[in-house]
Amino acid sequence: MRSLPNILIAGTPGVGKTTTCNEILSLASQSTPPLNLKRLSINDIVKERSCHTGYDEELQTLIVDEDKLMDEVEKDISDGNGEGGWIIDWHSTAGFAVRWVDLVVVLRCDETNTLYDRLSSRGYKEEKVQENMDAEIFGVVTEEAKEAWDEEGQVVELKSVEAEDIEDNAERIIQWVQNWIKDQGQ
Ligand code: DAT
Fold first, then answer.
1. Which of 24, 26, 101, 136 is the most exposed place for a label (fewest CB within 10 A)?
2. What is the predicted ipTM?
3. Given the CA of residue 166, which atom of ligand 1 is nearest to it?
């Protein structure tokens, strides 16, 4: 039984997942009483625990071994008797068991020029930038999330275009956590 919810922050690369997670953790530590939320960066797990089978030169990305990755994710999520409080970030919701996650937040950047600039400034090749732009335009991550977490309210999209969106979104997520805790107590 979780005492804190697990939240998956998903979205196309460059939409602001890392920045938003950092803001959530910062607000959580300033809450009274502080909320013991913890970051689970899937990117770090892929690299640090070698959950990949090689490197795709064309797309400049590691080829993820999804089975191995999800085994590692499950280990972390089950840690501490599965008490919850994980803020997980990944560009996709594929492979995650529905029962692990209480809320999926899909960050969206519908300002294509803004997203283009964020991705190109990472030094991504044009092909990789375009692939990610297409995924964002077609809302691929939301579609995928809704197919799995079909329960009402479990998948929310939040706009992440301007700097103030980061703070607004983090505040909304903290509020959602507070409400979740209250609901559990009833
Ligand atoms: P992600 O983790 O989704 O790949 P990120 O948090 O690393 O994205 O952000 C990529 C860059 O874009 C980084 O320089 C911060 C900036 N950025 C992201 N979301 C933003 C927003 N809503 N307003 C302003 N800048 C943003």
1. 26
2. 0.98
3. 22
For the chain, 186 residues long, the average pLDDT of each consecutive 10-residue run is 95 98 98 95 97 92 96 92 94 96 97 96 94 97 95 93 98 97 88
17: CA distance to ligand 1 center in Å? 7
Which residues form the pocket of ligand 1, taking CB atoms under 6 Å from any ligand atom?
11, 13-19, 118, 160-163, 165-166
CA of 19 to the centre of ligand 1 (A): 6
Question: What CATH code would you report for 7-174?
Answer: 3.40.50.300
> What residue ranges do the domains of the chain occupy?
7-174
- Distant-in-sequence, close-in-space partners of 69: CB < 8 Å, separation ≥ 6: 42, 45, 46, 51, 95
- What's the 80 CA to ligand 1 centre distance in angstroms? 31
pLDDT, residue 100, reads: 95
